[in-house]
Specification:
Layout lengths: L22 H21 L8 H11 L9 H7 L4 H13 L10
Helix pairs in contact: 1-2, 1-3
Length: 105
Amino acid sequence: MIRKQLSLTHYVALPTPRYQITPEKRLMLAILQEAVACLEKGLFRTSQRCSRPAHEAAQWIAERDPTWLFSFESICDNLNLDAEALRQQLLRKEQDGHMVGRRSA
């Protein structure tokens, strides 16, 4: 069975056209998109353990540190995204128990 990979655009409307955002914001957007991709790959794993990148992406998204330039909070703020609403959407599957393999110690 082939499962469809979701992208960041599934969760939020992104600024367009692309050339209107600064290179710095493009970098932030790329970081956010990579985190979503890692998280989605982990959601669709069939094994009992979540991939390390998916686990790290979930931790990064869950962290509420606005002081670091490349934190989830800071990136959302710079991209004019509602960090809490996006966090809830991205982590909903994990909280509902659909994310396979919460990392064990």
